[in-house]
Amino acid sequence: MSEQTAAANDSAFRVPTNLQEFTALAVALLSVFVLIQIGAPIVRELDFLDQKLRDYFIGISFAAFPVIHRGCKQGLAGLQSQVPVRQDLTPWFVSGVIAAALLFAWNQFVSFLGGISTGIVLGQIQGVNFEAPETVQGVVLGNLAISLPLSAVAAVVAGVLLNRHSRSHVFGALALAAVFFLVFNLFVNWLAQPEFVAASFGEAMNGGAAGVAQFLFGIAFVGVIIFIFGVVGVLISRFYRERSIGRLMDAARRLPVGERDALTAELVQRYEASLRARMAAATAPVQMPGAAEP
């Protein structure tokens, strides 16, 4: 049973919870990157193969990630001593980066939908100059009016999950999530519109200290919103004392399906017994001091 459990854990991807698993993930990602960078140009030069077949061979490099990741974990486990490693919650720096990536993906999805809706509306209006500064500014402000409230709600959920699943330094993980969210946002904007980013930075530099301060405030504003509402989520989670929920969920995921179902049934039975005991205590008749028992 233990060998089957270990095999199941190795085949299923999960968030790293210790240095060994984090190193295995980094080595696997680096190996796939090197394989694609070296193998893809070689495959493209094989002109005797059909183009679809060459694309298929390149796609195999991405599909090989689970196999490479499992091999890295097994290799690193073989280098370690045979002392069992205590599994725990995710380190704060890992959970912070993951939260930043998820928040950024959600923000981009909402902005994409907002941009589509704004484009449809402007497309119905005749004579709109899409390159005019006021039009661009209106589109940006409209997207912010949609994305900021939804990002704030997502930040509350992220704060709750960080308090559940971070091993320690929850507020540090939240601050790291806000910082990496800004880094991801700046990097993507620079890749998509390098001229616009350079022009905005040059305009801020020409405006002196006030222009630079306004530019930095505009960049950090969304990150501040995410941190503030993330703190709200952390406080909500701590009010309901949810720290143990994360440890319970993490331990249950590592069990085989049968043992996990048995644990769930045991917890449900304990809860129902506790609930019946509280109901019986609440409905029991109150006996006055000194009264004779019937």
Structure explained in plain terms:
The chain has 294 residues and is mainly α. Helices cover 80% and strands 0% of the residues. It has eleven helices and no strands. Helix 5 packs across helix 7 (170-192) and helix 7 (170-192) crosses helix 8 (194-206). The radius of gyration is 27 Å and the shape is extended. Mean pLDDT is 77; it is low at 1-8 and 81-86.
Biggest sheet statistics: none
Name the poorly predicted regions: 1-8, 81-86
Overall body shape: extended
- State the helical fraction: over 70%
- Strand-and-helix sequence, N→C? HHHHHHHHHHH
User: How many β strands by DSSP?
Assistant: 0
The first-to-last residue Cα distance is 57 Å
List the helices and strands and how they pair.
Layout: H1 2-11, H2 19-44, H3 51-63, H4 65-79, H5 92-123, H6 133-165, H7 170-192, H8 194-206, H9 208-239, H10 243-253, H11 257-283
Relevant terms:
mainly alpha; 11 helices; extended
Outline:
This protein is 80% helix and 0% strand. The protein is mainly alpha-helical and 294 residues long.
